[in-house]
Amino acid sequence: MATTTAEREQWGSQLGFVLAAAGSAIGLGNIWRFPYLAGEGGGGAFVLIYLLCVGLIGMPYLYAELSLGRNSQRNPVGAIKSVTGSGSLWVLVGGFCVLAGFIILSYYSVVAGWAVGYAVKDVIAPSMGFEAFAASPWMVIGLLGVFLLLTFLVVAGGVEEGIERWAKILLPILFVLILLIIFRAVTLEGAMEGLAFYLVPDFDAITFDLVIAALGQAFFTLSLGMGAMITYGSYLPKQEDIALSGTYVVLFNTVIALMAGLMIFPAIFATGADPATGPALVFVVLPEVFAQMPLGGLVSVLFFLLLSIAALTSSISLLEVVVSYFVDEKQWSRQKAVWLIGAAVFLMAIPSALSQGAAGTFSDMSYLFGDGGLFGQNNFLGILDYLIGSAGLAVGAFFLSVFISWVWGADRAADEMEMGGSILSPGLLTAWTFMMRYVIPVVVFGIVMGYAFGIL
Ligand code: TRP
Fold it and tell me: Which CATH number does 14-452 carry?
């Protein structure tokens, strides 16, 4: 298919791309989800398996999404059409990617809005507990609006002037904030016990469920399974080395996740809180921890600012997937796409925003699904996260890996990787095509089955 390289936007530099893609990867997944999963999964044991999943499965699969994107210079739908033509059923997989971006963005922004609210909580709601906070309709909708508006403004600026520029500004700030908080956390009395829990694996804690959860987290944290990296890869100039850039993205993302644990676990253990509290860890347990520690008020503001920044560089990438579809396939202008889709995302997000208590008796959907809920989830936000953000990504990654390896062809993807020169030696590239064909689709199918049988 003809590509309009001359008109299509591109990243300004390799560093710019790496920071933008790392910004997509680094998000609530690193600072909210990874710590609570590690806390539930016995600490070091989860961390070890997670690192293996990221390095052996996530990273090679990331190269594949980037290659398809750069080769086609298109959004996920356009990328698939560039291989199969527009009549193929595979195009539906691209459609799923765009829809998933829209839906994940809607509820992700609600949680991100809470982070923004907590960063300024002393000003807007000083003595409110989390439950009351999440159940105040105007508060959560207002914060959601603020967060989405920031997302729209960045994406409206374009690939280089908006996304890349803001990633270059925000990621260094994020890095410094994490370092400050780690310093405060590890100098607390009793911090060492937290470090030991987090860093020394207890091999008995490794179970099949833990491996499946770690694999799912590897995909979520690297923004894989719904074409975000196809889209970001589509703006990569032909001379860039895909494997090298992708490897940097994985390294940055991993370092930030590990650092998030370094700041959270010492603080939790030093104050005697429970590391295995699940999703409430960051919004309920941490504020209690901060309240007990010297300089806690300041640390709390910095922490939630950090969380908001991390979420922003990720929400940008979710919106960009949808925007790029309308720009490429429907010839909309970027401005029109951002503001129209933005308005739709805001509307779609309202039920999620109200689902944490603000909708009164309608918040808990047991009246529809019974006490067990739908897939164990009792509220709208939880259901979307399970259906699209967890199980959906696994299904998406399965179809995309089969598509790239078998329909487009793993060796064509390898050729694309070699175009800009590759740090991978010919032997490693061959090993990569083998992994893409025979290992990754099978392993990802394992995660899909994990969801199907309700393990997760
Ligand atoms: N990776 C981000 C995080 O860790 C979330 C995210 C952004 C994402 N874009 C994505 C997840 C695309 C899956 C797919 O918070």
Answer: 1.10.4160
d(CA 200, CA 140): 39
Using the mean position of ligand 1's atoms as its centre, give its distance from the Cα of residue 382 in Å.
16
Tell me how far the alpha carbon of residue 302 lies from the centroid of ligand 1, in angstroms: 22
Query: How many whole angstroms from 361 Cα to the centroid of ligand 1?
Result: 31
Nearest Cα residue to atom 9 of ligand 1: 223
Structure tokens belonging to residue 384: 């979307």
206: exposed, middle or buried (C-beta count within 10 Å: 0-12, 13-18, 19+)?
middle
369's CB contacts (< 8 A; 6+ apart) are: 378
Q: Which residue has the higher pLDDT, 267 or 145?
A: 145
pTM over 0.85: yes
376-406: pLDDT as tens digits: 778 899 889 888 988 899 999 999 999 999 9
Sign of CA dihedral 295, 299, 301, 302: positive
The minimum-distance atom of ligand 1 relative to the CA of 311 is 15
Q: Which two tokens stand for residue 382?
A: 């939880």
Residue 104 CA to ligand 1 centre (angstroms): 8
Q: For the chain, what is the mean pLDDT? A: 92
